[in-house]
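Batch job 17 of 40 flagged for manual review because the log was empty.
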Amino acid sequence: MFSNLRSLIFKLDPETAHDLAIKSLKFNFVPNVLDKKKDSSFFKTKLFDNELENPIGMAAGFDKNAEVYNSLFKLGFGFVEVGTVTPFRQYGNPKPRVFRLVEDEALINRLGFNNLGARNIFDRISSNKQSGLLGINIGPNKDSNNRLNDYIECLRIFHKVADYITINISSPNTEELRSFHDKNKLEDLLKNINNEKKNLGSKIPIVVKVSPDIKDEEISKISEVLLKSNIEAVILSNTSDSTRDKLNDIQKHQKGGLSGKPIEDKSTKLINQFYKIIGDEIKIIGVGGVDSGISAYKKFLAGASYVQLYTGMVYRGPNIVNLIKKELKELLLKDGVKHYSEIIGKKTIS
């Protein structure tokens, strides 16, 4: 059905189409495509001691204001991450700010953390209990005088309703946000996060979302800080503000973060580079170009224990989790593998 609708949807402005998708999920206009079989013998897993039906998650950015996370669970996602959420409401950057690169199966966005603010979103989650593992992705307000305090404030607000919290230091659309990749700044940020967790008496798992555009020499430094800070998982990676050379679409030079197929290999290589250092001590959630069984398979081979997607659903539709599981199962059966975890980290990428 989606293939028939896609041409019509793609005539809409991308942000308008996204708003329509949110409304459709909110009011149950999207058919329930949940796979009753679940293929749990191949895909059942755990994340932060929570049982998951599968390791395929919805990345932050789709459900920014925590409106449809339970609807996404019904579509088959093993876990869902909402946000990015900032302490105070903000509009984000001027429109147009989302661009669909159809020839490249990609998006470019420069949204700028548009969201309703932490208190509003906290109230929404509190009144609509999640039916699966829910992560909340947090970041600072654009005009904040103390970005470190913004992360702390969001942690204080969300630690009782989230199943995990992601520290977003990697969006290219908030000026100087990526400066937190600096070893000393990251160390200070995570030290303050851990201290606040102690003050709150909270055991909420902390995840860090890393940029795909970091230099090779930064990988070992960031890994060292993550290990030292007892971070439980790392998301590799976010959108890229480079990686434009091989794009074909006329909109390829739009400013913003690139997502989708063009960053698949870049993300997969980064996963493998981190995996060589952190191994199984920190779980890796692989993001970037995941839209099929083979793309997920490559992420697992590189060292990811879980994957997330967003742009893939734009191009393949709401049934994408079941499509990935079907394709991935065929690959695993072909290799004589009984559970996807058997292939994690089994391939070195140079």
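Reviewer: the log was empty due to a logging misconfiguration, but the result itself is present. Residues 167 and 208 are 5 Å apart (CA to CA). Unflagging and moving on to job 18.
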